[in-house]
Write a structure and sequence with these properties.
This protein is an all-alpha fold. The protein folds into two domains: 16-46; 47-238 and 251-279 and 288-299, no CATH class. The chain is 62% helix and 0% strand. The protein contains 18 helices and no strands. The model is unreliable at 301-305 and 307-321 (pLDDT under 50). InterPro entries: INTS2. This is Integrator complex subunit 2.
């Protein structure tokens, strides 16, 4: 009897907070025995985009001694801000800059899990930070908070951020991308508002997501190819029972097509990023050299994917209004 291997739906897997559960297992290794190491192996095999070296290094910085000491300053009598208060301040940007900075600084004292309720408000208002007059300090702090959230809810965070940074025309049409859309076509990440390309803190986030989705796309295609090849191999065996072995040309062809698609994605991403680094007609005579230098720093390849060559280093002090 012909059977297709059972697997969990993508919708179900998207709802599981994988990275958060990994962190919980890490803190309970004595109680859970060897479960943590087994989970890490599964994570590296099936979700390589959640195992980027940069993320592990970033997590060490976020959970290190200095962040712990900062959180100790957050006493029970400290002022609390709700998501609604944060939303109202975002709506008044840039005139509400000082108030927004006060709330964001408070949020930096929270742990990653405590910051989760603010994730949707932070990401949905990122487009407002592209307007003239927003201080670089606000942008840098939002970048910091985003990286903290990335340690516990990367997949959901990436989807919300990609949708928030879409050009205004797409936002008007209410075009929303899903996790599956972004794994199939990682270049969607680069179809953002073009002002992102001249905002180093948000460009740093965009490059991080691009690198992750290029890895996710490879894992998705490998998994899809394996499932379909096994299913068709079983069907072929049944239909050709008693005959000589059939050539493996279909499988080879699918493998070659997959590799060609992945190579095309990487090539297109690099080409787009190189074009982003070129000054426009206005910038050639407008003295935007320091801003372009800040953009080119993160874009410089770092040995994998589209590359992030050192995060947000080299950012200029302020973005020209």
């Amino acid at each position: 009897m012909q059977r297709k291997p059972k697997s969990y739906s993508a919708t179900l897997m998207d709802q599981i907070p994988i990275k958060y559960l990994i962190h919980q297992a890490q803190g309970l290794q004595q109680e859970l025995g060897g479960l943590h190491s087994a989970l890490l192996r599964l994570l590296a095999t099936n979700y390589p985009h959640l195992c980027m070296v940069e993320d592990w290094i970033s997590e060490e910085e976020i959970t290190g001694t200095l962040p712990l000491l900062r959180r100790m300053l957050l006493t029970s009598s400290s002022c609390k801000y709700s998501q609604q208060q944060l939303q109202e301040v975002f709506r008044a940007v840039p005139s509400s800059g000082p108030r927004l900075m006060q709330i964001l600084e408070h949020l930096t004292l929270l742990s990653a899990s405590e910051l989760i309720p603010y994730a949707e408000t932070l990401t949905s208002n990122m487009g407002l930070l592209l307007n003239a007059g927003v201080s670089r300090r606000v942008l840098q702090t939002v970048n910091t908070l985003w990286m903290v959230l990335n340690t516990v809810m990367p997949r959901r965070l990436w989807v919300m951020t990609v949708n928030a940074l879409q050009p205004s025309a797409k936002l008007t049409r209410q075009q929303r991308y899903t996790q599956n859309d972004l794994m199939i076509d990682p270049l969607i990440v680069l179809r953002c508002d073009r002002r992102v390309y001249r905002c180093p803190p948000l460009m740093d986030i965009t490059l991080h997501m691009l690198n992750g989705y290029l890895l996710a796309s490879k894992a998705y295609l490998n998994s899809h190819l394996k499932e379909t090849a096994e299913f068709e191999r079983q069907a072929q065996t049944i239909s050709n029972l008693g005959l000589a072995g059939q050539p493996d040309t279909p499988e080879v062809t699918r493998e070659e097509l997959k590799n060609a698609l992945l190579a095309a994605q990487d090539s297109a991403a690099v080409q787009i990023l190189l074009e982003v680094c070129l000054p426009t007609g206005e910038e050639q005579g407008g003295g935007a050299g320091s801003l372009l230098k800040g953009i080119r720093g993160p874009v410089r390849p770092a040995g994998g994917g589209a590359g992030r060559g050192g995060g947000a280093r080299g950012w200029p002090a302020e973005r020209p209004a």
